[in-house]
Structures are given as structure tokens and as C-alpha cells.
């Protein structure tokens, strides 16, 4: 039985961030098996927060609240990028290039939503 809200089904950013979170969970499990738990936990927190903030924005109380929640999600994108970059640069860490590419897509979509919503509020 699916507990997904049917009104979120065709929402591009919600779908992107949900899949990204699932992919990050898998990568963090790999980090944990290699004893890289501290970075893995930080990455897991920031990466899954992108989706939770984006989803929370869907129930914003106002347009300003919606924009604010998406800007919080963008901050989490930056933090997630940092943890992925550390994994990439540290010689003893595994990397996942696809996560970095997916994160760039999420950033572009979030920026576009924030930009277009901000223009429409004037």
C-alpha cells in the first residue's frame, strides 16, 4: 500500500529529490560498510533534508513561506555538495559521480522555481 500523496505524483522536484534521497541512502550504506560513518551520517542528513524541505514547501502558508522553504532546501544542496566533494577528494573514500550530477539538476530546478515564483510575486 502506497502512502504517497497522489497530488505529489507528477511533481518533478519532489520526484527528483525523493529518488536522490534513496540513492544517497544506498551510497551512505556503502560508506558505513567501509567505516566512513561520520561523513556518511552528515551526507545522509543534508541530502535527505533537501527533499523534506521541498516537500514541506508544498504546504507553505504563503508565497514567501514557499520561497523560504525552497531556499532552505538550496542551502542543504550546498552542504550536500560539500560532503560529496570531500568523498571525491579523500583518497580513502568511495565516490559516486551520478549523485553529484543529480544534485546539479536538483539545484537548477530549485533555482528556477525560486526565480519564477519570486518574479510572479511582484
In short:
This protein has 122 residues and is an all-alpha fold.
Count helical runs: 4
Helix content: over 70%
Query: Kindly, what is the distance between the CA atoms of the first and last residues, rounded to a whole number of angstroms?
Result: 42 Å
Apparent shape? elongated
Radius of gyration: 15 Å
| Number of DSSP strand runs | 0
Look at the helices and sheets and give the structural class: mainly alpha
How would you describe the overall organization of this protein?
With 122 residues, the protein is mainly alpha-helical. The chain is 77% helix and 0% strand. The protein is elongated and about 50 Å long. The N and C termini lie far apart (42 Å). The model has no long low-confidence stretch (mean pLDDT 93).
Main attributes of the structure:
77% helix; 122 residues; mainly alpha; elongated
Amino acid at each position: 500500500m502506497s502512502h504517497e500523496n497522489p497530488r505529489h505524483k507528477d511533481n518533478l522536484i519532489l520526484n527528483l529529490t525523493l529518488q536522490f534521497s534513496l540513492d544517497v541512502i544506498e551510497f551512505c550504506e556503502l560508506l558505513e560498510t567501509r567505516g566512513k560513518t561520520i561523513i556518511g551520517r552528515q551526507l545522509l542528513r543534508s541530502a535527505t533534508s533537501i527533499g523534506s524541505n521541498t516537500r514541506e514547501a508544498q504546504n507553505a502558508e504563503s508565497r514567501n513561506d514557499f520561497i523560504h522553504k525552497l531556499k532552505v532546501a538550496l542551502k542543504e544542496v550546498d552542504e550536500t555538495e560539500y560532503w560529496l566533494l570531500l568523498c571525491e577528494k579523500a583518497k580513502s573514500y568511495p565516490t559516486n559521480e551520478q549523485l553529484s550530477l543529480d544534485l546539479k539538476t536538483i539545484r537548477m530546478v530549485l533555482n528556477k522555481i525560486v526565480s519564477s515564483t519570486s518574479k510572479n510575486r511582484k
